[in-house]
């Protein structure tokens, strides 16, 4: 747990290119090439160098897709800079392609004039065939608009680890570290933290592998020094970003959710029970929480999604804070049990790491298409609060907020993240746990009704019933999914009772709006020509697009909604202060419909469902369309974007 | 069951003020009374007792017992109970389910609760029919059962609940029926077993499947049709004139006549609740050629799931301090000093 202080470097180092404000690098290779690991370590070294950053891991659903194939390409993109970075960047400046397939899938995204680093050792006839190249792109002129640095990384890696006597296959596994070494040289990064990490990683398993990987890393770094003399490789220095003072670390959304849940349960003063079932991309939360048992966490890998939520509800009934987590298909399975938690008014946190749907859809890709499912997706009138995290670090506070509302209002709460937030990393200023206001839970310990009777559904002034733990003497009572009488909770489905209890459940959730902050404006004025309204992980690209548009003088603002149900009390009034409302979403317009329904505002959609996050430019174009005086030109869908996406044509020629 | 301090209660203390809503003559009334009669004998504490159910006629049970109760959703009661037990292992949990709830929609959860060995009593009321949805055939209905959904008779073979339970690893399997005077004893044995105790209770659905168990449950001729098993006792029925002996050649059991009470000479075997192979044979005995085996068929405890989980939790917490500040700054960190800039 080394604490490293970011050094303030001199403004420029002689002999180097001028410092760019931000650089986007994409590492792409076979899913067995260790690209995610390479990206993760590069992220850490970038954070340690004091840059702001955002990452985008993009990998296939198959664990070990056949080697060298187009669908087996795994990529990791990082955007880092000397000013605030909120997206993983539109188009890369540098593409590292470990094989022909990685080149083919990713090269169209690269900026013109960008740099391609390719391993010629992998550009064999066999691999070219698998990538459906007729001729070797490194040898024809198809890459003319980019700088190409092609050399035999495989051979150099083998050479660098020769002394360790590894088998050919094992030796080649060090390729990613060789490449990382080169990248560290390019961006003037320190190697020591990676050395430490490698030593720790292999300390128990095989220290020789640590030495070999370090040798490969150093060899890649040394190569940079020599190759600079000739060819397109150059050293780029990106200034560090001046951040708020404090202790920082990198955090992924899945980590932040896990930490936030632990913090939330602690602030509530109850232990946490987590019921989960493996599903991409939500499993990481279970893996994280298993390692936090000393915080009063009990985890349970259930037999299915339904059992996972049911066990969590059972634990909530028994007095702990029940938490379950899944992704779209699993959330669908949990729907009936969520209804029971609504009906029995028990606290519960449901984390939904959204992915592309419907059905199995795009397991490893990102989408925001579970909003309807979150707000409306249960039988009967079954309202529950829904919170959406905007970024990996924001997920921490959102998880605490979910715990607060669940325990204070005796209700299930859904926390929405998505595949992008879950996997992506960003620097995070480590919060002070003391800075959060505790919200201690009080379980009922004495009869609350007349004549010393217990009334499990007697509501307080906010419409909230007491939380009663079995095991408490004298408070025995029965709850269930059948409609229940007022106060006593006895079975009663007479017309007036159902009307009254349905109203009470709805009003209770509406009351949550009194316990959340008013909606603020992230960027821009509180009225004007256009407001771009987002929720969830679109925060980064919307923010940057609005910033750029405002620099051009356009009267546009950014509003980002965390509490998507119930909505903040002032949101309707706020939105009516603008002439136009644009809602970019990675779905077919779900929040747009919610806003129209709630406020009768003419919200226009901007939709993208390609499994990839928005590019800043896509939103920027949509904003500009509101100001170009062309009627009917506003909103719409995003074309599959060559700059941002792995080209569709490359994958399906 | 749990190690607990015993509490003095009467049958009345376990009755709620709720009107019981089963059909007049339903076997559930008898089971309810048997349970309410058993609980005082166990010294059970209403404050620590939880009845958990799914959906169906039987699952209304918790509303009628003056303890804690949770009427959950169809088939999932074992999952709720598992969460409760992990959250508070002190709770004494009785799970109430039926043949549709426990073996059709909830078969998967029943499998896992038994396999994991979550410490609770599981009472499966088997009436071989769907009652609350008005009489469709169930997974335990006999071949050829005519019902609104199978007017031509059901064609799929029924599951045998006790064979299912043994097959998935249950460590306690017993059988009784609604109006049997022995039912409280069976329930007491289930409660005494530490772990998941599975009790199949044949229950007469007076409306949709009347008297389907009449062949062995009717008082008249019961002694010839019921074999009440007792650990260590010879497996005798028909007033001691018949018994079960080993059929070595076929590796199963056979009915033998006992002359003048000399069961040993007839080769009748003593029941052994820890003999898993014997249990398998007993639950598979076809009724007709054999009597219905009732009572505790198998009882051989193993460590419970919640003990294993919570022990592991305790071990992994050993020597660790729950320092949230430390947790948040885990891994590699760096410090930024100086003044903050306006990021926009």
Automatic annotation (TrEMBL), chain A:
Matching entries from InterPro entries are given as: 2-oxoacid/accept_OxRdtase_asu, PFOR_II, Pyruvate:ferred/Flavod_OxRd, Pyrv/ketoisovalerate_OxRed_cat, Pyrv_Fd/Flavodoxin_OxRdtase_N, Pyrv_flavodox_OxRed_cen, THDP-binding, Transketo_C/PFOR_II
Q: What is its EC number?
A: 1.2.7.11, 1.2.7.3
One GO BP annotation is: response to oxidative stress
Domain (Pyruvate:ferredoxin oxidoreductase core) ranges:
531-590
Q: Which UniProt keywords apply?
A: Oxidoreductase
Q: Please state every residue range assigned to the domain named Pyruvate flavodoxin/ferredoxin oxidoreductase pyrimidine binding.
A: 264-434
Q: Name one Pfam family in it.
A: POR_N
Q: Region Disordered: what ranges?
A: 633-653
Asked whether the keyword Oxidoreductase is assigned, the reply is yes
Q: What is this protein called?
A: 2-oxoglutarate ferredoxin oxidoreductase subunit alpha
Q: Which organism is it from?
A: Novosphingobium marinum
TrEMBL record, chain B:
- InterPro entries tied to this protein: 2-oxoacid:Fd_oxidoreductase, THDP-binding, TPP_enzyme_TPP-bd
Q: Does the keyword rRNA processing apply?
A: no
Keywords, A to Z, come to: Oxidoreductase
Q: What class of enzyme is it?
A: oxidoreductase
Which CDD domains does the UniProt entry name for this protein?
TPP_OGFOR
The domain of life is: Bacteria
The catalytic activity of this protein is classed by the Enzyme Commission as 1.2.7.11, 1.2.7.3
Q: Tell me, what is an example of a GO biological process annotation in this record? A: small molecule metabolic process
Q: Does the keyword Oxidoreductase feature in the UniProt annotation?
A: yes
Q: Which residue numbers delimit the Thiamine pyrophosphate enzyme TPP-binding domain?
A: 55-201
Which Pfam families does UniProt cross-reference here? Answer: TPP_enzyme_C
GO terms for MF: 2-oxoglutarate synthase activity; thiamine pyrophosphate binding
User: What is the name of the protein in this document?
Assistant: 2-oxoglutarate ferredoxin oxidoreductase subunit beta
Q: Give the species.
A: Novosphingobium marinum
């Amino acid at each position: 747990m080394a604490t490293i202080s970011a050094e303030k470097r001199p403004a420029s180092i002689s002999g180097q290119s001028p410092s760019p404000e931000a650089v986007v690098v994409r590492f792409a290779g076979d899913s067995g090439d260790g690209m995610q690991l390479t990206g993760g370590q590069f992220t850490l070294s970038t954070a340690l160098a004091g840059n702001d950053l955002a990452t985008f891991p993009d990998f296939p659903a198959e664990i070990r897709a056949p080697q060298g194939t187009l669908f087996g390409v795994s990529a990791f993109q990082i955007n880092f800079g000397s000013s605030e970075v909120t997206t993983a960047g539109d188009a890369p400046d540098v593409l590292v392609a470990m094989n022909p397939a990685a080149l083919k899938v990713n090269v169209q995204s690269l900026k013109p004039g960008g740099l391609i680093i390719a391993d010629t050792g992998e550009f064999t006839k066999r691999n070219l065939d698998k990538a459906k190249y007729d001729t070797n792109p490194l040898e024809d002129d198809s890459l003319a608009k980019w700088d190409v640095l092609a050399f035999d990384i495989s051979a150099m890696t083998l050479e660098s680890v020769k002394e360790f006597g590894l088998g050919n296959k094992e030796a080649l596994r060090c390729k990613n570290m060789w490449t990382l070494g080169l990248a560290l040289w390019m961006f003037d990064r320190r190697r020591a933290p990676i050395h430490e990490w490698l030593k720790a990683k292999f300390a128990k398993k095989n220290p020789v592998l640590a030495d070999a990987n370090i040798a490969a890393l150093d060899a890649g770094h040394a190569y940079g020094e020599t190759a600079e003399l000739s060819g397109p490789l150059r050293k780029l220095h990106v200034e560090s970003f001046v951040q708020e003072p404090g202790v920082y670390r990198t955090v992924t959304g899945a980590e932040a959710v896990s930490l936030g849940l632990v913090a939330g349960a602690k602030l509530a003063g109850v232990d946490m029970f987590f019921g989960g079932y493996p599903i991409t991309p939500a499993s990481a939360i279970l893996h994280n929480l298993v390692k936090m048992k000393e915080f009063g966490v009990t985890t349970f890998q259930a037999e299915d999604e339904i059992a996972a939520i049911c066990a969590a509800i059972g634990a909530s009934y028994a007095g702990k804070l029940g938490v379950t987590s899944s992704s779209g298909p699993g959330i669908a399975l949990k729907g009936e049990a969520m209804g029971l938690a609504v009906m029995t008014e028990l606290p519960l946190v449901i984390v939904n790491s959204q992915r592309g749907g419907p059905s199995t859809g795009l397991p490893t890709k990102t989408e925001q298409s579970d909003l309807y499912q979150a707000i409306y997706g249960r039988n009967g009138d079954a309202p529950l609060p829904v919170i959406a995290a905007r970024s990996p670090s924001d997920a921490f506070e959102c998880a605490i907020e979910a715990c607060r509302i669940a325990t204070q209002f005796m209700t299930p709460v859904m926390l929405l993240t998505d595949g992008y937030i879950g996997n992506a990393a960003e620097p995070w200023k480590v919060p002070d746990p003391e800075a959060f206001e505790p919200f201690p839970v009080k379980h009922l310990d004495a009869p609350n009704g007349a004549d010393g009777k217990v009334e499990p559904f007697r509501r307080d002034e906010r419409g909230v019933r007491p939380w009663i733990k079995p095991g408490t003497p004298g408070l025995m009572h029965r709850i269930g999914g059948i409609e229940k009488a007022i106060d006593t909770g006895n079975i009663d489905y007479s017309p007036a009772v159902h009307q009254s209890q349905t109203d009470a459940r709805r009003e209770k959730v509406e009351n949550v709006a009194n316990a959340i902050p008013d909606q603020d404006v992230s960027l821009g004025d509180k009225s004007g020509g256009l407001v771009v309204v987002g929720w969830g992980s679109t925060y980064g690209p919307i923010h940057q697009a609005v910033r750029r548009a405002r620099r051009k003088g356009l009267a546009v603002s950014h509003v980002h909604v965390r509490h998507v149900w119930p909505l903040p009390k002032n949101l309707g009034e706020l939105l009516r202060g603008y002439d136009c409302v644009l809602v970019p979403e990675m779905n077919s317009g779900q929040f747009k419909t919610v806003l129209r329904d709630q406020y009768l505002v003419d919200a226009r959609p901007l939709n993208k469902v390609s499994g990839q996050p928005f590019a800043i430019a896509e939103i920027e174009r949509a904003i500009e369309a509101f100001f170009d005086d062309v009627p009917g030109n506003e909103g719409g869908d995003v074309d599959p974007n060559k700059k941002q996406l792995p080209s569709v044509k490359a994958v399906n020629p | 069951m749990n190690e607990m301090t015993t509490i003095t209660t009467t049958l009345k203390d376990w009755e709620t003020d709720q009107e019981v809503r089963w059909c007049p003559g339903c076997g559930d009334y008898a089971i309810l009374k048997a349970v309410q009669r058993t609980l005082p004998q166990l010294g059970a504490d209403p404050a620590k007792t939880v009845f958990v159910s799914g959906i169906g006629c039987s699952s209304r049970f918790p509303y009628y017992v003056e303890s804690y109760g949770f009427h959950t959703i169809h088939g999932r009661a074992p999952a709720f109970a598992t969460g409760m037990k992990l959250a508070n292992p002190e709770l004494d949990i009785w799970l109430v389910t039926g043949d549709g709830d426990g073996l059709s929609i909830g078969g998967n959860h029943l499998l896992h609760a038994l396999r994991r060995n979550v410490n609770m009593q599981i009472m499966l009321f088997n009436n071989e029919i769907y009652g609350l949805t008005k009489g469709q055939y169930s997974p335990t209905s006999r071949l050829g059962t005519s019902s609104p959904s199978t007017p031509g008779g059901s064609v799929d073979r029924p599951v045998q609940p006790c064979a299912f339970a043994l097959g998935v690893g249950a460590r306690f399997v017993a059988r009784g029926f609604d109006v049997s005077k022995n039912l409280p004893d069976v329930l007491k044995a289930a409660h005494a077993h530490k772990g998941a105790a599975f009790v199949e209770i044949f229950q007469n659905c007076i409306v949709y499947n009347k008297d389907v168990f009449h062949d062995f449950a009717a008082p008249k001729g019961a002694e010839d049709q019921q074999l009440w098993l007792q650990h260590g006792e010879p497996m005798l029925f028909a007033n001691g004139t018949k018994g079960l002996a080993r059929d070595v050649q076929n590796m199963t059991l056979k009915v033998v006549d006992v002359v003048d009470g000399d069961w040993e000479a007839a080769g009748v075997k003593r029941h052994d609740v820890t003999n898993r192979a014997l249990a398998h044979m007993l639950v598979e005995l076809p009724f007709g050629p054999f009597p219905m085996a009732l009572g505790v068929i198998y009882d051989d405890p193993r460590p419970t799931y919640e003990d294993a989980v919570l022990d592991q939790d305790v071990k992994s917490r050993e020597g660790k301090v729950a320092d949230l500040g430390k947790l948040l700054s885990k891994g590699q960190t760096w410090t930024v000093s100086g003044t903050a800039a306006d990021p926009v």
